Amino acid sequence: MSNIKVSVHEGDSLELAAGSTVREALGALLSNKQRRQTVAAKINNEIVDFTTVLTADTVLTPVKTDDAEALDVLRHSAAHIMALAVREIFGENVKVAIGPAIENGFYYDFQRDEAFTPEDFEKIEARMEEIVRSSLPFTKTEMSSTDAIKKFGAEKEPFKTELIQELGRDSVSFYHVGEFTDLCKGPHVPNTSFIKAFKLLRVAGAYWRGDEKRDVLQRIYGTAFFDQKALKKYLNALEEAKRRDHRKLGRELELFTMQDEIGPGLILWQPKGAQLRRLIEDYWKEEHYKHDYELLYTPHIARQALWKTSGHLDFYSENMYSSMDIDEVQYQLKPMNCPFHIGVYNSGKRSYREFPIRWCELGTVYRYERAGALHGLMRVRGFTQDDAHIFVRPDQLEDEIFNILDLNLHILKTFGFDDYDIYLSTRPEKYVGSDSNWERATEALKLAMEKKGLDFEIDPGEGVFYGPKIDIKIKDQIGRSWQCSTIQVDFNLPERFQMTYVGKDNAEHQPIMIHRALMGSLERFIGVLIEHYAGVFPTWLAPVQARVMNITDSQIDYSEDVYRQLRKAGLRVEKDIRNEKLNYKIREAQVAKIPYMLIIGDNEKADGTVTVRLRDGKNLPAMSIKDFVDKIRAEVVSERGY
Ligand SMILES: [Zn+2]
Ligand SMILES: [Zn+2]
Question: pTM of this prediction?
Fold first, then answer.
């Protein structure tokens, strides 16, 4: 056999027989210490593992334990180890399906008549621990699909058989670890000892292939890391996320509810949640007005023909609800607001002098989501976008994107978000509009971000077919990222709706349209806000800012009076004048996370004051009602900006 030259990127090289594996190559090229930190390797940006056979000259870039890509390899390998443990403990009563790495961990789907219990988890983890300690290597073989189907048929593994049939390849690859063989294309860690820290997290039902008509399998979720410290940090973060879960807090704080009778994914805002939403909406509208936007209101349904013109019927219909017949004409619920804003645009002749035209709307749209995908406020079927459409001349694009970013980041900052990741998505393979327009628009987006001093990453080819876009992911108090804002240039709809304006040259031109949402949807944004603040809203956003509470019945009248005065002053106040112990009232107000408790006893009544207690337990000295009102107003101004 001939020899090949294998080298490590920016490192040594050597001659090996063709057909050698990455394991052999790295074994010779790396020091022991380097090898212990090497999880896999990259060849031309593709991750391969130690089993990969080298047949030509190759440059290997080691993937080390601290590389971001290494975690996926580790976690997918952990899924194999879990399956091996489950197999060893529960034998052939368990059928295996699939086990990928996912964000933050891995899962494996099993079919088993009995449910997996917490005791089972302990057993599985204990067995996994032993497997990890035995440093079992991952090895690979190839087999013809016909033989593989026979093999899995004999082992009565219907899911694997189905997967191979569907792959339709001549041959398939298998990975072996211990006594467990799995259909898999890899890559994996060199051996099980790399999995220094892991934990099984939970079990949930999952349909085979996500198909609601197929078998329900048991999906065991777990996570794995290269060290215990990282695992511990992650588990703490999970606990913290549970504490902040907006569905739990939404219930406890009486913000919103969903009911079967209404329908899944449809939100009922309770008074406190509605108050929170109103505060956000008012602020949003005021900020937009200050930044030269005009407000629009548009209907919830439109003739089907409109959705034909807009292209939604052809490209978006799986997200739209079925049509309804009104006077023998078909209408459909809106999945987007854009065509309505275009309708306003086309209601008159437009001149270049009017530009930029900035129209915004809190527009409620309806989109189909699978029942299984619905999640609290984060994924719903009816939601209100904080939408805006801006119409500009090509020469205005850069300045306008700058303005949008400015307003966008300003509003996010007011809500407590000043850490974010920004992405610029460029032209995909399929697109409309001319190449020169795409280039100019992409350049304008870039320049605007640079001018604003923003760091951004480029997502090549990830733009929408109608134009390039900027996406902003905000980071919450515990470092989680949430996709919220999007700014999209559109060359498509102006064409479809034959939008024009009269230019300086007196000729008709086509405007550029920008779609923009800051929060994305109010529902989702409020979900994020609840988790961001863990329900402890700043004073400007707190649905209830203060609760008045008396100590004994002799202060009821004065308490009522204080309550009335504060309400008149525009504060969001409640009163608790029940015949209950003060400590009990305080505890309830703390659970409700109300920023201020106003405690009224005989002294306060005599002096015309209130004693102020904060939700963290601190007390402020007694103050007059006017001083309290001033204090709250000043706080709101400092938090909100005015
Ligand atoms: Zn695998
Ligand atoms: Zn739009």
Answer: 0.82
